[in-house]
Every structure is written in structure tokens, then in C-alpha cells.
Write a structure and sequence with these properties.
- The protein contains ten helices and ten strands.
- The protein starts with 6 loop residues before the first helix and ends with a helix.
- The strands form three sheets. The protein has a four-stranded mixed β-sheet.
- By secondary structure, it is of the alpha+beta class.
- It has helices spanning 7-34, 39-47, 66-79, 81-100, 103-115, 230-266, 278-305, 312-337, 347-355, 365-376; strands at 120-123, 139-143, 146-157, 164-170, 180-186, 192-197, 208-219, 223-224, 268-269, 272-273.
- A hairpin with a 2-residue loop joins strand 9 and strand 10.
- It is 52% helix and 16% strand.
- Helix 1 packs parallel to helix 3 (66-79), helix 3 (66-79) runs antiparallel to helix 4 and helix 3 (66-79) packs across helix 6.
- It is globular.
Amino acid sequence: MDFVLTEEQQDLKETLHKYAKEVLAPRAVELDKENRFPTETIHELADQDLMGIAYPEEYGGAGADSICEAIAVEEVAYGCAATASILTGHYLGYDALFLAGSEELRQKYLRAACSGEMLAGFCLTEPNSGSDAASSSTTATADGDAYILNGTKHFISNAADADFLIAFAMTDKSKGTHGMTAFLVEKGTPGMSIGAGDDKMGIRGARTWEVLFENCRVPVSHIVGEINHGFKLAMQVIDRGRAGIAAMGVGIAQAALDMAVAYAKERVVFGDTLSNYQGIRWMLAEMETDVQAARWLTYYAASLKDTGRRFSKEAACAKLFSAEAAHRVVDKALQIHGGYGYMKEYPIERLYRDQRILEIFEGTSQIQKIVISGNLLK
């Protein structure tokens, strides 16, 4: 196994790191205060071929590998965690099309999503159905050449700004997990409406919304994959997406570590800089170890994505470790800042809030442990 980045990967990392520091980081302050979706940033990401970086050129992507995708998410998260969350939500939103969509849907929607002409969203979670996705109560009833969707989805990333959503609904509730189907629902479809937006603790620019389906008629041609095979498809998408959330954790943790190092070098206490105290040095060493371990677990999981084989356990390991490592690193970084770290004038305060969602969305840390242990005990 080669632990050295290719020239392409290193160039991408350096270019995006500069963009994250100079453009995204200053903008993150405004997004957090205003709870505003960063439309202008999404256009910039599209201009840099990031909206479909690891997807084939034939579908509008950049044709890079999945490690490049992880690097992209990591560096975007370094500057603005909210923007990285929008990006990973977009990947989730159209990944089902890549895996199982008809060629007609791929040419019309996947191509537009990968090129950045369209924004996508993944529509699975419900008010009473989060980790237990199989308990979904949204229904889809056959009606001639269409299906009628009824139900409510919640915490849906990008929903109000998305051009289409991949929505999951029960087409045969008697079959449980074998009775769910995926549908592509385009923006403006009668019967689909966007409800209340969420006022979140962190990643505030990455808006999430309630989505309502009230006798929403979706043509049969907009079914993604096979009837009653939607749950399996959703789990495949989530497995693949967990490497992206792990990459977010790496980016946030690296940003926090860099802030802590800079502060420790300049802060004078008892006549000496913090960086000269052994206790602080040991904290920084522990933080660096967490960041490096999270990064390489993430890159390994991402590399498996390109092989086409199942990597649920590895993706769950990366997501679990990276999310919790980011928590540890950000917590120590804030501690090093002392009272200033608790003040909104310092960006570590925002990172402390932004990080916390990593241990919850796309499967809580507890769900990752269920996935990992389940693979071990087969």
C-alpha cells in the first residue's frame, strides 16, 4: 500500500487548502451568523470541478479517484464545515442515480448534478425514522403510469435549494425493508413542498428542511433502481457517503489543530509561550496523532470505494474514528485557547459547534459500532 499522495492528489490538496484559507474560512463566519445557504460558493465549487469530482466524465464528472474526493471534502471542511456538509449532501443526493438509475435519468439529472448545473438532496430521514430507516412511514401507491407519494421527511440537507431529491418511500409496507423504493422528485413537482427550516447548533450554512409529500405524483420513469429494492440502495449510498463524513472530520480536526498550534506559539503565560509547556506539547502531540490516524483511515476507506466491492465495515470504522477524533481534537484546541476559545470572536468556538454533528448524521457513532461489530460477528 502506497501512503504517498500522487502528484494529482497533492496538487489538488494544495490548491484547495489555499482556497479554504483565503475564501471559505472568512465566509464561514458570515454563514454561521446569518444561517444562510452559500449559493455563490456552490458556483465556485462547480467551477473547480468539485461537484462530481470522483464520477465519470461521461456523466459530467471530473473522473478523479475517491481519494481526490476525500481530499476535496477535507480541505473544504478545513475552511467551512457547512460548505463541506452541503457538498457531501449533494454527493449523497445523486449517488443512487449513479449506482442504479436508468440511462435516461443519468443523462438528464446525474450529468447535470456532477457538472454543478443541478443541486441534489438525499431524502430518507423522517420525524420518527432516523437511525431506524426501515420504519419509514412515507408511502408510494401505484396509480397507472405513476406513484402517489404521501408523507413527511425531516432534516433533509439542501432541500430548499435542490433541483431534485432522491426520496425513499414504502411501496409495500408488509415487506418491511424489502418494500421500500427510491424515486427522483424534481423541484416544483405538484404535491411536494418545503416545510420548516431547521435552526441548528452548528454547520448553520448547510440548511436542512422538512419536506412534505401530499398526493405527490411521480412518474414510473423516475423510479431509481428496482421496485422494493430502495432500502438496500439507500444503505449502499450511505456506506459510500460515510467516507465523506470522515473526511469532514479530518478537515475540521486539522483546522482546530492548526489554530491551537498558532495560539500556543503566541500566547504568553507566566513569562513563557504556551508552546514551551510540556502539558500543552503533549496535548498537541495527541491531537496530531488523532488527525493522522483519522486521515489514513479515511483515505483507505475512500480507496476501497473505487474497487467496487463492499466496504461497509471500513467506511464505518473511518466515520466512527474520524468523528470522535475530531471531537477530541477540537475540545483540546478550545481548552488550549482558554477563555478566549469560548468567545465567538475566535473561530474555534464555531468549530466546537460544527464538529458535534459528525457523531450523529449518516449514522450515529452507536450505529457505526453496530455495523462494525455485525461485520465481525458474521
